[in-house]
Amino acid sequence: MRILAVADTVSKYLYDCYTPGKLGGYDLIISCGDLSRDYLEFLVDASNATVLYVRGNHDDSFEERPPEGCVCIEDSVYNFKGIRIMGLGGSNRYREGKNMYTEKQMEKRVKKMRWKLLKSGGVDILVTHAPARHLNDFDSLSHRGFECFNAILKKYRPKYFIHGHIHKNYGHNIPQRSRFEDTEVINAYDYCSFEYESGKN
Question: What is the pTM of this model?
C-alpha cells in the first residue's frame, strides 16, 4: 500500500509542479496538520486516495469549516483496510488556541482512548501533529514533544509514527525518517511517501 504523508507547508513538488496523474498512485494520504483547507481539498480532488487528517496548532478554523472530502481522525482509531490509525493533533500550549495542550491535557486525551485501543487490538500507525519528547523535538515550549506519545510507542509499538510541526528549515540535522525501538518515525513536513506492507508489524 502506497501512503503519502504531508504537513506544515504546501509542497511545491505536489502543488506548484502538479501534473495530472501525479497523485494517482497513492492509496492513502495522511495530513499531520497546519495545512490549508484548500490544499487538503486539492489532494482529495487530485487523487483517488482517502485523505485523513489531524489538526495542527494553526488549524482552529477547521472546527467550524472542516476540509470537504477529508476524514478527521482526532481522538480515534480509524481502520483503513485493516490498518489501525490513531490520531492526536495539536501542539504544546505556548499561547491560547483550540489545538494546543499541556502535557497533562494530552495525557488525558490518550487515557480516554484506552477503550478504543483495546477494542482495536492496538495501533499500526500513530498520527500526530507534534513530535514525541526527545524525538526530533526542541526544548522550547512551542516545539517541545509530548512525553505521553513516547508511552504510546513503548506500549503499542506501532509500525509507523508520523508527525509534523518540526520544519526542516529549523536546522540542518533534522531527519525525515528515524527509528524509535520498533517504530519507524516520519517527519511529514512538506511530504514523504512510503510503502506500507500489510501483514507485517
Answer: 0.95
